[in-house]
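Here is one record:
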Amino acid sequence: MGRFACFDVELHFLAALDFGPDSVDGWLAAVAARELERRVVVPAETREQRPSPQEALRATMHRYIAWAREHPARFKLVFGAWSVDSPELGAAAHAAQAQLTGIVAAAQDVGALPAGDPVRLASLVRALAHGGADLAAAGHLAPDGKGHAGPEQLIDDLLGYLRLAAEAPPTTHRLTSP
């Protein structure tokens, strides 16, 4: 029942129960897909308004964290484990990852991020934003407390470190992926 706490859906929930638990999970997957689709549209608008790909990436991740902190139940619904195969949710997740990967690739193209697999780098940035938002929600990360930073500041730190790595001359001591 905890998955339903973020939505005012008592009537929809009761209607879905008439069709069994698979229908409830399917309905929730559709809700999660629509939530992800809304998250994808905003970054596209942001990218058009920002002067640089690195600023678009920063704004996108800050908005992701803000959404996670403002709507923790929706955040958990979207990124929780699923017992149903939902093509709609799969397509929304793929579109969201593709869009983030595109922003990362654009930042790599202008030298704001180091070269490498943009999918892995996008996943690294998203993982920090996701984990940071989760830790902050649980009280384990705060600018004036644990971690001495909020998730937004950690994203800014990571993007700063990555920019330095992109600008650094190649050396034999650089981290390489297997």
Residues 1-11, 13-21 have pLDDT under 50 and may be disordered. The chain has one domain: 2-167. The helical segments are 10-17, 21-49, 53-70, 72-79, 87-109, 118-137, 151-167.
